[in-house]
TrEMBL record:
Residues 6-149 form the NADPH-dependent FMN reductase-like domain. This is NADPH-dependent FMN reductase-like domain-containing protein. The keyword Flavoprotein applies. The lineage of its organism: Bacteria, Pseudomonadati, Pseudomonadota, Betaproteobacteria, Burkholderiales. Keywords: Flavoprotein, FMN, Oxidoreductase, Plasmid.
Length: 193
């Protein structure tokens, strides 16, 4: 029996509404159009006050712990961050500092970012890929970068970016299928639990 994949998106945006969160939702929808999945969106803006003061994972609230567990138990990750001073936001990194270093091994990760201009487009390859390489995750080959001008009322409108997102998901499908095949069946999960 095939169970839906657990696809978790993490948006590093600290404001609401957030272009990063809307891009994450767009990518979640594209994946859901291709494979049965359970979707979850984690927004840093929603948990920032609960996350900011913690130094150790044991200091985190149950709410943040549940979000960390969702990332660690996901079959596929989508990560989207706004560019802030040439990199991902500090709270985005702080959140991933609490993820167990072995939890993302071989997990497919679709990388995306939003920024004010084209000059930050390399953030995906220069900042996000190294972070997820540390975790030994399988960063997917095509990242998505969108600028402020690609959105109208927080909806993605630029056809080139929309097509790149579609292409990124299409190219990700073989790795997503591998993740689905590697996932234990519900019966195996119950036995392990």
């Amino acid at each position: 029996m095939t169970h839906p994949l657990r696809v978790v998106a993490v948006s590093g945006g600290l404001q609401r509404p957030s272009k990063s969160a809307f891009l994450a939702e767009h990518l979640l929808d594209l994946i859901a159009d291709e494979v049965p999945c359970q979707q979850r969106l984690i927004e840093m803006g929603g948990i920032a006050p609960l996350l900011a003061g913690a130094v150790w994972r044991s200091q985190l609230s149950d709410t943040v712990e549940q979000e960390l567990a969702a990332v660690e138990q996901a079959d596929v990750l989508v990560v989207v961050t706004p560019v802030f001073r040439g990199s991902y936001t500090g709270l985005f990194k702080h959140f991933f500092d609490f993820i167990h270093q072995d939890a993302l091994i071989d997990k497919p990760v679709l990388l995306a970012a939003t920024g004010g201009s084209e000059r930050h487009a390399l953030v995906i390859d220069h900042q996000l890929r190294p972070l997820f390489s540390f975790f030994q995750a399988r960063t997917l080959p095509l990242g998505i970068y969108a600028t402020d001008k690609d959105f109208v009322d927080y909806c993605l409108q630029d056809e080139a970016v929309i097509e790149r997102a579609r292409l990124a998901v299409q190219r990700a499908l073989p790795l997503v299928e591998l993740a689905r095949q590697a996932r234990p069946s519900l019966a195996e999960e119950v036995v392990v639990a």
